[in-house]
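Deliverable D4.2, example record:
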Amino acid sequence: LGWEILTREMPRQTRPDGIFREQSTHYHLLLTRTFTEVVWLARRHGWPVSGEMWRLLEKMHEVAASMIRPDGSIPFMGDICPDIESRHLVGVLALGAVLFKRGDFKRPEAITEHALWYQGEEGLAAYEALDGEPPARTVVAFPRGGLAFLARRSSVPAHISLHCDPVGEVVFHGDLDPLGLAVWWDGREIVVDTGNYSYNRDE
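Output generated by the structure prediction step:
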């Protein structure tokens, strides 16, 4: 029953370009990890994974690869889950690299303790054997999800995040952060304007 619910709900909770519908960067990573763990276990036990679920999960990893900064941090847009730090979530990208055989998902910051726990020695060997590396410069827009990321991985790394909500298509739940902007430069945030920081109008 749980597998049937997940199979049905994943396309409803994820936009076609891979953005989690709440448009929260932190929850996007959290749900990417959750879906990846379940699909990974399903494949290991011979359960069928639909083509749509597989395609959406790869898209979710593409979004994660775009939002993770060169130091392993992420821009905080939208709500967050207070129970887990983002540094415990970025390791899922290493598992995605192995699952989808995507060398462009390889990130030094994604080889975390959690990534090693997922994969073990065999998975780590498969990860290291993948050809490819993250591009030096990327400009990626996800128009259905309303997020865009610009990244430079060089001697002076930089990362810019922009939230441009597509005609208010927030489903079920959203946050007051359209046109949110975050600029990260060489290890620190220099512009942070990612929306309303409180649910209480008096604060």
